[in-house]
Write a structure and sequence with these properties.
Helix content is 27%, strand content 30%. The protein has eight helices and 16 strands. The strands form four sheets. A five-stranded mixed sheet has the order 3-1-2-15-16, covered by helices on one side. Strands 5, 6, 7, 10 and 11 form a five-stranded antiparallel sheet that branches. Strand 5 and strand 6 form a beta hairpin. Helix 1 packs parallel to helix 2 and helix 6 runs parallel beside helix 8. The chain is globular, with a radius of gyration of 19 Å. The model has no long low-confidence stretch (mean pLDDT 89).
């Protein structure tokens, strides 16, 4: 991560009027936060936005054309299963506005945590929550066990941490043998967590408010990184979010990744359940 970030900084330092960085890493074990920290050091409020790509190369190589959605496409000459792809946006007359949209609200009491070991999944791990194996928290409060339907069952109630002036949702990537949970984002030992709650009107209302903020900016193009958990929860209504944006912004590009990235002026970073 340090070497890759240094290579990107070398390029950025030679390009005048850098206004933003699009970031698309591939590999769940990468420390994306470390990469972003080095990339943005001494760059003020430079926005970094994007999503974790995590391409399954083996699946792609063995698939027939009929197994792909007709809208799937690739840019470039090769598939990169492990590493960082970055786009530098620069120009004296270029202006970039980045927005963070959530819609989930905190629910219930704060819960103490014990940090777990760092493994190949994500950047953060929680070993214990309120003194018990972390995975048991879902059984205790939601009556949900860890199985193939886990993410669907907890889509409405992601864990949440408050950082700075923002609430950030977290959904586990994996479970360890001792009940520890692994998350995309780094977790600090002094932090507490709590459950969050989402309902249709709040989530769609948050994206509508973001659409209005973006309209005031009068953009020539809009790029959305959208969390798959919003689809898990909204299901058949998920298309409303990007359809509403496309009405105002025909030059719209959107993607869904394993998680979304949005950091500016030290706030944000690796995110879940949101739109950037």
């Amino acid at each position: 991560e340090q070497t890759a970030a240094a290579q990107l900084r070398d390029k950025m330092d030679w390009i005048p009027s850098v206004k933003g960085v699009g970031l698309f890493p591939s590999g769940t074990e990468l420390e994306v936060s470390t990469f972003i920290e080095i990339t943005t050091k001494n760059y003020g409020d430079l926005p970094v936005f994007g999503a974790m790509a995590c391409t399954d190369v083996k699946f792609m190589m063995q698939s027939t054309p009929d197994e792909f959605d007709e809208n799937v496409f690739g840019i470039g000459e090769k598939i990169m299963p492990h590493g960082f792809t970055a786009v530098i946006f620069a120009g004296e007359k270029l202006n970039v506005m980045m927005d963070y949209i959530l819609g989930w609200k905190p629910l219930g009491k704060e819960l103490s945590i014990k940090i777990g070991p760092k493994e190949k999944y994500g950047e953060g791990s929680i070993e214990l929550i309120d003194g018990r194996p972390a995975v048991e928290i879902y059984q205790k409060y939601l009556g949900v066990g860890w199985d193939e339907n886990f993410l669907w069952n907890v889509a409405e109630f992601p864990l949440m941490v408050h950082r700075g002036y923002e609430d950030i949702c977290m959904l586990p990537l994996a479970k360890g043998d001792n009940g520890e949970l692994y998350f995309s984002a780094p977790i600090e030992k002094h932090e507490n967590i709590r459950f969050s709650y989402g309902n249709r009107s709040d989530i769609l209302g948050a994206s509508e408010a973001g659409r209005k903020r973006m309209y005031k900016f009068k953009p020539e193009a809009v790029f959305l990184s959208m969390c798959g958990n919003r689809i898990n929860y909204l299901q058949d209504e998920a298309h409303i979010e990007w359809d509403n944006y496309k009405i105002l912004f025909p030059e719209l590009v959107f993607c869904h990744g394993l998680y979304e990235i949005g950091l500016q002026d030290g706030h944000g970073g690796v995110l879940n359940s949101s739109i950037v």
